[in-house]
Amino acid sequence: TAEAEARRATYGANTFAEAKKASKLQLFTRQYADPMQLVLLVAGVICLFLPGQFYTGLFLLLLTVFNAWMAMNQEGKAEASASALASMMVVKAKVRRNGDLAEIPMDQLVPGDIVNIEAGDLVPADARILTAATLEIDESALTGESVPTPKQVDSVAADAALGDRIDMAFMNCQVTRGAGTILVTTTGMATEVGHISGMLQSTTVEKTPLTKQLDLLTNQILIIAGVALVISTALGLY
Question: 153 near 129, Cβ under 8 Å?
Answer without folding.
Answer: yes
